[in-house]
C-alpha cells in the first residue's frame, strides 16, 4: 500500500530579485518525512494549481506553513496599514477555502505560525498586526541578531488547557516553545478554541471546535529541529497518525 501524502503549503519567493518561485523550508519537509510516515509534497500557493477539490484528491492531509507575508486584513474586515506588512493574496486564495473544506471533510490539517493565523481568519476571527504594541504583551518577533539556531531557540512557555487536545498529545500542561511572529489573534473565530497561551496572554495553540478530524494549529514553529524537540515530535507524530488513519494505513 502506498504511503499517504501530506501537502505542505508553499510560499512565494524571488531568486536574485528576478525569478519567481514557490518554496517550502527544508525543516517542514524533514519534519513530515521523518515523523509522520507520509510523503511530503510541496503545494504551490497559487490558485492556478487547481480547485480545492483537486488538492484534496491529491493529498491526505496538509501542513499550513509559516511565511513572511501576512493574511490580507480585508479578509477579516480591517483596513490596511503599514504595520500589516507584505501580503500574498494568492496564498490567501488557496489556503482559506482549503482549510474550511478540509475541516468539513475531516481531512487532517496542521497550522504553523501564518497557518495558525489562517485558521483563525478562515473561521471568522481577526488578527492584530503588532501584538507587541498591546499593553502587557511582549515582543514575539524573531530576534534580529544571532545564528539561525539562536533565532529558533525556546523563548517562553505556553500554558495548555487541562484535558485539552494539546495536553493529551503532549502529556503536559506547560511547554517551552520558540517565538518568531509579529501578528497574532485579536478576536478568535466562533469555532476557534484557544487551548494554549503565552505568559502575556497571547494565544499560541488552537483547535477547531467540532472538527471531525485533526484540526490543530500553533503560533510557534514546531518544524524546527522537530525530531529532537519533546513538543514538536509528538505533535507531528499525532498529525501523521491522523493522516494515516484517514488514508486507511
Automatic annotation (TrEMBL):
CDD domains assigned: GATase1_2 (cd01745)
Catalytic activity: 4-(gamma-L-glutamylamino)butanoate + H2O = 4-aminobutanoate + L-glutamate
GO BP terms, alphabetized: polyamine catabolic process
EC annotation from Swiss-Prot or TrEMBL: 3.5.1.94
Enzyme class: hydrolase
GO molecular function, one term: gamma-glutamyl-gamma-aminobutyrate hydrolase activity
Source domain of life: Bacteria
GO annotations of cellular component type: cytosol
Annotated metabolic or biological route of this protein: Amine and polyamine degradation; putrescine degradation; 4-aminobutanoate from putrescine: step 4/4
Keywords linked to the UniProt accession: Hydrolase
Keyword Hydrolase belongs to the record: yes
Functional summary from the UniProt entry: Involved in the breakdown of putrescine via hydrolysis of the gamma-glutamyl linkage of gamma-glutamyl-gamma-aminobutyrate.
The family this protein is said to belong to: Belongs to the peptidase C26 family.
The name this protein goes by in its record: gamma-glutamyl-gamma-aminobutyrate hydrolase
Organism of provenance: Amaricoccus solimangrovi
Amino acid at each position: 500500500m502506498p504511503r499517504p501524502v501530506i501537502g505542505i503549503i508553499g510560499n512565494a519567493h524571488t531568486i536574485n530579485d528576478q525569478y519567481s518561485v514557490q518554496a517550502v523550508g527544508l525543516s517542514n519537509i524533514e519534519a513530515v518525512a521523518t515523523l509522520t510516515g507520509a510523503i511530503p509534497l510541496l503545494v504551490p500557493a497559487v490558485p492556478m494549481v487547481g480547485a480545492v477539490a483537486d488538492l484534496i484528491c491529491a493529498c491526505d492531509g496538509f501542513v499550513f506553513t509559516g511565511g513572511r507575508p501576512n493574511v490580507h486584513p480585508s479578509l477579516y474586515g480591517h483596513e490596511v496599514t503599514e504595520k500589516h506588512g507584505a501580503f500574498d493574496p494568492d496564498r490567501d486564495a488557496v489556503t482559506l477555502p482549503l482549510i474550511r473544506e478540509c475541516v468539513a471533510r475531516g481531512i487532517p490539517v496542521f497550522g504553523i505560525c501564518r497557518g495558525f493565523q489562517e485558521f483563525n481568519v478562515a473561521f471568522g476571527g481577526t488578527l492584530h498586526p503588532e501584538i507587541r504594541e498591546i499593553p502587557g504583551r511582549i515582543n514575539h518577533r524573531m530576534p534580529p541578531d544571532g545564528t539561525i539556531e539562536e533565532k529558533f531557540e525556546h523563548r517562553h512557555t505556553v500554558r495548555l488547557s487541562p484535558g485539552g487536545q494539546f495536553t493529551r498529545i503532549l502529556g503536559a500542561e506547560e511547554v517551552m516553545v520558540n517565538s518568531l511572529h509579529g501578528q497574532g489573534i485579536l478576536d478568535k473565530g466562533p469555532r476557534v478554541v484557544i487551548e494554549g497561551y503565552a505568559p502575556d496572554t497571547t494565544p499560541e495553540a488552537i483547535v477547531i471546535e467540532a472538527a471531525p478530524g485533526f484540526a490543530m494549529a500553533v503560533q510557534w514553529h514546531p518544524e524546527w529541529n522537530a525530531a529532537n524537540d519533546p513538543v514538536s515530535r509528538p505533535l507531528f507524530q499525532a498529525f501523521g497518525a491522523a493522516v494515516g488513519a484517514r488514508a486507511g494505513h
